[in-house]
Design brief:
alpha+beta; 15 helices; globular
């Protein structure tokens, strides 16, 4: 009988969705060994271990009994793991990530939004660049440099919701356009600025909050009175504007809010939401920084900067495994430690007890508690 380790308790929430993921994506078809479960557990172990290369992961699986028990394998040859990363479609791991998202959101989603609850559904969109080796020809970026962009849609509660991978030349606005939904407010930086794109969002019934580019051309249509509450919070002006000039002018009127922070720096926030107090719009954009902190965290503590496979499929397998691991850590931190944020100390503690023995009953009770929150 396979010993139960703390690792099994940590991964229990995602394993609950594994049978339907395998059936949906047919990910075990033509495999006589190294099935999806073993592949998934190996990829999650890789994210939490100190092993950075494919060879190091294979060596640990082959020689360390505790690792073998955790990933439920006696070890496979390096070539088997490499072929699985190359050939097993990343879609099974994407399916598992999407299945785990609502569980993570229910367990540890919005907690400190306060007045921002009145805003409705809010998503943050941004992309992070990851440099690749020269042999990854599909990852087009520059003549002498290869790279990819991971475009992430982020829930305001601190949970990544969607990942789209493009080459380093991928257009940020194109990816965001594929995610637009009516009634949702999107937060993004000035890299997404495009007058025509703003008009498209208005036509689709989607909202946005961003910063106005310094060279933007606009005409002030109306100047609103700034409420006392907004003035106290740093709002200098609140205006309705017509953006663009000549052929670049767009029909929808937008809102421009000028804000000054405690250091005296002035910001210009652009939005199509006229229903919110000016200070709420400013506070919304400040929450956009959450996704920057997320990118910094996963690049510092998970394996997303050095890939163990060179094909696009292998890269996606690794990235979705990283996101799944992040969600599993968020769920455990909230359920077991009552922590809102993933700290370095917390992660160090997780790695220290990763192979501690636990009972089957403890694993079952933890899983039941996690899933109960999602269904309540």
């Amino acid at each position: 009988m396979i010993a139960r380790r703390f690792f099994h308790k940590l991964v229990a929430p995602v394993l609950a969705f594994l049978p339907q993921a395998v059936a949906k994506t047919n990910s075990d078809w033509h495999y006589r060994k190294f099935f999806t479960k073993e592949h998934l557990l190996t990829l999650i172990y890789h994210q939490l271990s100190d092993d950075h290369t494919l060879r190091a992961v294979e060596e640990a699986r082959r020689t360390d009994e505790k690792v073998q028990e955790a990933v439920e394998s006696s070890g496979v040859h390096l070539s088997n793991l490499g072929r699985a990363n190359q050939n097993r479609s990343y879609k099974v791991f994407r399916y598992l990530f999407h299945a785990l998202f609502p569980v993570a959101l229910a367990c540890c989603g919005v907690t400190d939004l306060g007045t921002l609850f009145v805003v409705g559904s809010v998503k943050i969109m941004d992309a992070t660049f990851i440099e690749c080796v020269a042999s990854m020809l599909w990852a087009e970026y520059k003549t002498k440099q290869k790279g990819v962009k991971g475009h992430v849609l982020f829930d305001l509660g601190g949970i990544p919701e969607r990942l789209v991978l493009t080459s380093g030349k991928g257009k940020d606005r194109t990816v965001l356009a594929q995610s637009l939904k009516r009634g949702v407010t999107y937060l993004f930086d000035r890299g997404y600025n495009c007058y025509a794109f703003f008009a498209t969002m208005c036509e689709l019934g989607a909202y946005f909050v961003t910063r106005l580019c310094a060279n933007a051309v606009y005409e002030v249509v109306t100047t609103f009175t700034v409420e006392a509450d907004s003035q106290k919070r740093g709002v200098l002006s609140d205006q309705k504007i017509r953006l663009g000039q000549g052929k670049t002018r767009i029909k929808p009127l937008l809102r421009l809010i000028t804000f000054q922070d405690a250091t005296g720096k002035v910001y210009h926030f652009l939005t199509n939401r006229f229903d919110l107090p000016a200070w709420v719009v400013c506070e919304l954009y400040h929450r956009r920084w959450d996704i920057e902190l997320f990118f910094r965290w996963i690049k510092s503590y998970l394996k997303v900067k050095q890939f163990i496979g060179r094909s696009r499929n292998a890269v996606l397998c690794q990235l979705f495994a990283a996101l799944i691991t992040f969600l599993l850590l968020k769920i455990h931190a909230k359920k077991e430690e009552a922590q809102e944020k993933l700290t370095r100390t917390y992660l160090r503690g997780i790695k220290h007890r990763l192979f501690n023995e636990v009972s089957e009953a403890e694993v079952g009770a933890y899983l039941a508690g996690v899933l109960a929150v999602n269904t309540s």
